[in-house]
C-alpha cells in the first residue's frame, strides 16, 4: 500500500470513529432532553417522538436510560439560575468542543489548507480554551490560569478571522470586496456613534533592524494601496491584503472611537443604513 493510500485509509477510519463518537454524544443529549421534558410535564410519548424526530420505542428507551419512572408525578419547572451563577459551564462547553473536534479533526487530516477547515479548527480550539478559562485543568502544571490562557483565546479568534478572509477572497473579486468595505464604512458612520479609518501611516522596524514608513490608503475604486519610502517594501496588494488592511484599520478606529468626546458624535440614527441587506433564514417546522 502506498503512503498516499495509507494516509487516506487512516483519515477514513478516523472519520468513522469520529462519527460514532458524535452519534453517542447526540444520543446521550437527546435522552437527557427527552427525560427533562417528561419530568416537567410533557407526558405524551407521541408528541415527544414527533418533536425529537425519532420513534416511540426510542423515546421509551431514552426514558429508561435516564431512570425515569413513567408513573411518577411531574416535577415543577426548575428555578431560574441563582444570582452570580456563571452563564456558561465548563463541562458543557468542553463537551461541545469535543463534538466539534470529532467533526473537524478528520476534515483537517484530509484538507489542512482549506480555509473553512481552518475556520472550524480555530473555532473548536477556541471552545476548548473557553472551557479551560471557566475551569482551569488541574494537575497539569503551571500556565493554566485564565490570565495565561485568555491570550490564546484571542489568538484563535484572530486565526478564525484570517481563515474567513481567505475563504472570502475565493468568492469575491477585488472590486466587489472594495465595494463591501465601503458599504461597511458608510453603515458605521450612519449610526452616528463610531469613527472609521480612511488610512494610516505606519513606522515599521524590519528584521534587519532598519526602520521604514509605510502608508495605507485607497485608490479611486476603494482598493487598498500600500506605499513606502523604502525600496525594501515592494509589490502590489491583492484581495487578501485589502481585507487584512481594512480589518486592521477599523480595529484602530475602534480604539480611537472609545476616546471620542460627545462633540464628535451625532444622534443615534434609527433608520436603515444605506445599502443594508437583510439576511433571513427559514427554520423547518416539525412537519418538514
Spatially, the strands of the biggest sheet line up as 1-2-3
Mean pLDDT: 86
Outline: extended
Beta strands, count: 3
The helix tally amounts to 8
N-to-C span: 46 Å
What summary fits the major beta sheet? 3 strands, antiparallel
Helix percentage range? 40-55%
Structural class: mainly alpha
Indicate the low-confidence ranges by residue numbers. none
Radius of gyration: 26 Å
Keywords:
288 residues; mainly alpha; extended
Gist of the model:
The chain has 288 residues and is mostly helical.
Describe this structure in words.
54% of the residues lie in helices and 7% in strands. The two termini are 46 Å apart. It is extended and about 80 Å long. Strands 1-2-3 form a 3-stranded antiparallel beta sheet. It has 8 helices and 3 strands, in the order H-H-H-H-H-H-H-E-E-E-H. It has helices at residues 3-39, 45-52, 56-65, 90-110, 115-134, 146-169, 174-190, 239-257, and strands spanning 200-205, 211-218, 224-228. The longest helix has 37 residues, at 3-39. By secondary structure, it is mainly alpha-helical. Strand 1 (200-205) and strand 2 form a beta hairpin. Helix 1 (3-39) packs across helix 3 and helix 4 (90-110) runs antiparallel to helix 5.
Amino acid at each position: 500500500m502506498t503512503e498516499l493510500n495509507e494516509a487516506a485509509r487512516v483519515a477514513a477510519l478516523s472519520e468513522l470513529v469520529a462519527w460514532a463518537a458524535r452519534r453517542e454524544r447526540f444520543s446521550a443529549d437527546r435522552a437527557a432532553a427527552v427525560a427533562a421534558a417528561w419530568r416537567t410535564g410533557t407526558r405524551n410519548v407521541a408528541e415527544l417522538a414527533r418533536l425529537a424526530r425519532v420513534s416511540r420505542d426510542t423515546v421509551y428507551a431514552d426514558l429508561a436510560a435516564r431512570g425515569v419512572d413513567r408513573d411518577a408525578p411531574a416535577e415543577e419547572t426548575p428555578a431560574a439560575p441563582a444570582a452570580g451563577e456563571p452563564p456558561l459551564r465548563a463541562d458543557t462547553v468542553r463537551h461541545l468542543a469535543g463534538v466539534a473536534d470529532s467533526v473537524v479533526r478528520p476534515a483537517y487530516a484530509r484538507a489542512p489548507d482549506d480555509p473553512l477547515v481552518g475556520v472550524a479548527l480555530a473555532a473548536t480550539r477556541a471552545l476548548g480554551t473557553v472551557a479551560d478559562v471557566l475551569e482551569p485543568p488541574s494537575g497539569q502544571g503551571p500556565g493554566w490560569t485564565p490570565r495565561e490562557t485568555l491570550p490564546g483565546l484571542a489568538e484563535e479568534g484572530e486565526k478564525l478571522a484570517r481563515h474567513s478572509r481567505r475563504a472570502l477572497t475565493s468568492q469575491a473579486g477585488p472590486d466587489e470586496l472594495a465595494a463591501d468595505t465601503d458599504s461597511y464604512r458608510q453603515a458605521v458612520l450612519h449610526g452616528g456613534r463610531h469613527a472609521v479609518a480612511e488610512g494610516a501611516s505606519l513606522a515599521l522596524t524590519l528584521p534587519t533592524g532598519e526602520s521604514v514608513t509605510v502608508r495605507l490608503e485607497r485608490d479611486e475604486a476603494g482598493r487598498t494601496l500600500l506605499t513606502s519610502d523604502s525600496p525594501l517594501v515592494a509589490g502590489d496588494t491583492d484581495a487578501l491584503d485589502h481585507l487584512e488592511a481594512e480589518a486592521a484599520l477599523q480595529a484602530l478606529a475602534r480604539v480611537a472611537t472609545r476616546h471620542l468626546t460627545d462633540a464628535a458624535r451625532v444622534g443615534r440614527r434609527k433608520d436603515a443604513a444605506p445599502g443594508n441587506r437583510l439576511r433571513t433564514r427559514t427554520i423547518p417546522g416539525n412537519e418538514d
